[in-house]
Amino acid sequence: METDNRGERSERAARRCFRGRLAFLGPKLGAWGPTQSCSAAPNCAISEAQPRKGAGRGTAYRPGNSLRNVRFVLNANQETGAVGPAEAPHRRLSNWGGLGGAYDTKVYPAKSLCSHCGLCDTRYITYVRDSCAFLNQHIAELEQKVHGRSRALDSEDELYFGVFQSMLVARKKKPIAGAQWTGIVSSLAIAMLESGLVEGVVCVQSSKDDRFKPVPVIARNRAEILAARVNKPTLSPNLSVLDAVERSGIKRLLFIGVGCQVEALRSVQDRIGLEKLYVLGTPCVDNVTRAGLQKFLDTTSSSPETVVYYEFMQDFRVHFKHDDSVIGGPGRKWDEIVPFFALNTKELKEVFAPSCLSCFDYVNGLADLVVGYMGAPFGWQWLVARNETGLEMLELARQVCGLEEGPVDACGDRRAAVQQSITAYDRALTLPRWIAEFLAIIIGKIGPKGLEYARFSIDSHFTRNYLYVRRRYPEKLDAHVPEYAKRIVSQYKLPDT
Ligand code: FAD
Ligand code: SF4
What we know:
Mean pLDDT: 81
Helix content: 25-40%
Structural class: alpha+beta
Strand order of the largest sheet: 3-2-4-5-9-10-1-11
Number of strands: 13
Bound molecules: flavin-adenine dinucleotide, iron/sulfur cluster
Low-confidence stretches: 1-105
Distance between the termini: 44 Å
Strand content: 5-15%
């Protein structure tokens, strides 16, 4: 009986799907016509086009569709072959890097937990239920696939930093002007492209209208990679170029991205038709929507409209760089530094994206090579090569990127500070500026450094995120939190509710 019901439902879904295809191929096709190439990357066909009102009705996934329908419709496409995989109907969603509007996160399968990684803007939405970092946390399984083993939970370093073969600190002797740190990511990407190791690089440039609005591209030359330097501190749909990658015929690809993008990419990588995929990851935490970023800047900086860069640094301060030419000024540049403890936690608590408040892959455990800063002394970058491919990339960086290198180090003890931060965050405590400055100086001198700072940051974020998931999504808690994160969190006493 149940089978019959399912059969009826399937037939209804098939009819809907057929109508959907007609709609897709018919009058609405115009709305999905040739995508505009990004001017900075003419070979890349990622769409700047905004769907017209009502466009995409009847495509495989639309607001209100259940995941079951998505799976059915797309399976039907594969089975009948009526619509070839590269043409599979899908909605190319337009709200990159910012929520709101007609296509709010609610229409993405992960709903409010969606990080806008871009997968669902491509035909690979077919695989969303198994691939999405927020619908199917499967880091250990993917570690096994990508690195040949999952992380050793009894090794403190792997428990925190994931599978690795080599870990070091480095900086470019001649930093790239305008890079986030010294530009190791951009210069390695250039080296990989120019040495012929890869034919294209997925990275993220900024929109011409808004320097903080991310525009993912497939870069094909040095200038296009350099145009992507510096963080776009907003959710970025880097995977939205996957269809374009497939169409481009590229066989050897470098993907630069953050953990949630990489988890989804690793899940579908065997379907893209690549001969070789390199993944250069960065750690990532506390990302925001475009609206959230504005709130953060308005709340924290004395001149939000001129900010061109910021970073939460190891000296327990947020460092902003300003340039007044972005508002038509004469090009005056200056720095602004705000201690963490002076941040308006009450206002900012809800600013971070729900995806980031429920993420436990801070260190990008599935990338081949990770380049961040959190395990390094101030001014240096932190490099983690996880597997043979990562070692190959590291070796190339050593040969051509002009690096000064050093070993990783650790000092201090983070635990008491983390335990205190749990209550402080819950109570949304903000200190007066002078006390916050004083504390930053003291903690900067005696507080955790190097790998111990990285562990401090991981512990603070994992305990906060564990509480967030436990309070908001208790039914997801067990499956969503990886075993390594459970072990890290279990070192601390959490509030009962
Ligand atoms: P650059 O040479 O300037 O290149 C930056 C690269 O980042 C570019 O290739 C670009 O494509 C890519 N990129 C920019 N914005 C995004 C985005 N939104 N999503 C995906 N890719 C992007 N490191 C830590 O150690 N701890 C952290 O807490 C931390 N948080 C981060 C949060 C975000 C949102 C991002 C994007 C990165 C974060 N990093 C963090 C990484 C760090 O800030 C630097 O990006 C990294 O060290 C590389 O510096 P670089 O000078 O070599 O990069
Ligand atoms: Fe789709 Fe990525 Fe959002 Fe998950 S996080 S629903 S895979 S766009």
